Amino acid sequence: MSTKQKTVAVHAGSRLTGSKAVPVAPAIYPAAVNWFDSSDDLDGALDGKDYAYGRISAPNTTLLEEAVAALEGTEACVAYASGMAALRSVFDAQGFKPGDRLVMPADGYGVTRLLYKNLCATLGVELHPLLMTDARTPERIRELRPRMVLAESITNPLLRVPDLRVLSKVSHEVGATFVVDATFPSPAGQRSLEFGADYAVQSTSKWLNGHSDALGGTVSGSAARIAPLRSARILAGDVLGPFEAWLTLRGLRTLPVRMKAHAEHAAHVARRLSDSPLLERVIYPGLPSHPDHAVAKELLTGGGPMVAFEVKGFGRPEGMRFLEGLKTCRPGPSLGDVCTLVMHAASASARRMTPEERATAGIQENLIRVSVGLEDPDDIVEDLLGAVAKVVRK
Predict the structure, then answer these.
(1) Would residue 206 show up in a list of annotated catalytic residues for this protein?
(2) Is the Cβ–Cβ distance between 183 and 202 less than 8 Å?
(3) What is the pLDDT of residue 25?
(4) Which one of the listed residues 206, 225, 230, 358 is annotated catalytic?
(5) 103: helix, coil or strand?
(6) Could you give the CA distance from residue 351 to residue 348 in angstroms, rounded to a whole number?
(7) Is the dihedral of CA 291, 110, 203, 177 positive or negative?
């Protein structure tokens, strides 16, 4: 089969091994348990040779994992009930011991920060949040010699774009596992494994599903790296359900086409917002004004589907009133839908960070994050600026 992403998205994960029938739309297999006429077949299934029990393996999950691995350009993938479960599984796989160190983005997703902060505190692991786009960070990683380094392809919510090539090189120099949360660009916008990541993590609830109707997460990588994660998932039980897997696979079929449109719309929205005197700053990796624009051009396909902006004179109360004034866009604490989703960053994605952590990251109370949808982009711009103007006039 072709390795071109549009073809892979449509056809990967279409048939189960051992069957000659290939339905155009895969069936949903809701059964949690299967039985066999032959006890030998049952015995083999319990070792993973067939489908015996949903906690071990399930048909819809298998098809999704095959499709995501193909899109990521790698050998294997394991799916979870949520993106946070996926991030937890990668942490657990490192075998951290007291005194070990973990490096993660200081300006990344607040819930990931809280998860790893709590896990590290429990195990006696040192957590070192660093700005991954800072020129001094590679040398700091050399000094710390961590067991694991986590980066985000595009940081949440400030949309910084770290150079994964540099971070992977220094991580491997010191023997660290290099993990990339690549949710924001999706595999259609960046294959982080090609830039040296050992694991690529996706919250499939976002762009892969694309319709906000199924939670999920995946970790992709080499077969050798994924095998222990799969074994651990059998014991932990944080499996993806058949309906969620089916919905995500259905959404994934249009991923390259959707992401191209999302990125084009985001670029248009960013350019028009940049002309508004009401905004203090517009943040979009595809704009020449973005501090990581050169890196983004090399590591991303397009400028990405996300836009952020800061509004002059806005604090949290004004941000809340802005959200209430939206008509076309939807105020929602997520991303990746066909409709535009807008959130006040400090109270949503960065909600679980302390005020000091947000200040260090540069996440201010006037920051708005936009997941640009498939509506007419001019309608999106007019809705955003109209809602800003209503608050400013008051």
Answers:
(1) yes
(2) yes
(3) 86
(4) 206
(5) strand
(6) 5
(7) positive
Cα(232)–Cα(213) distance, rounded to whole angstroms? Answer: 27
Mean pLDDT of all residues in 120-142: 98
Of the residues 29, 80, 109, 199, only one is catalytic, namely 109
Question: Strand, helix or coil at 393?
Answer: helix
State yes or no: is 55 an active-site residue.
Answer: yes
Cα distance between the two ends of the chain = 59
pLDDT tens-digit map of 155-172: 999 999 999 999 999 999
pLDDT tens track for 230-242: 999 999 999 999 9
pLDDT at 14: 79
**181 a catalytic residue:** yes
The larger pLDDT score, comparing residue 17 to residue 257, is at 257
- Beta bridge mates, 130: 105
Of the residues 55, 250, 297, 352, only one is catalytic, namely 55
Q: Which of 181, 238, 292, 383 is catalytic?
A: 181
Instruction: Assign 174 to helix, strand or coil.
Output: coil
pLDDT digits (tens, 9 = 90+) for 308-341: 999 999 999 999 999 999 999 999 999 999 999 9
Question: Is 49 among the residues known to form the active site?
Answer: no
Residues in the chain: 394
> Minimal CA–CA distance to 371: which of 230, 184, 213?
184
Query: Is 21 a residue whose pLDDT tops 80?
Result: no
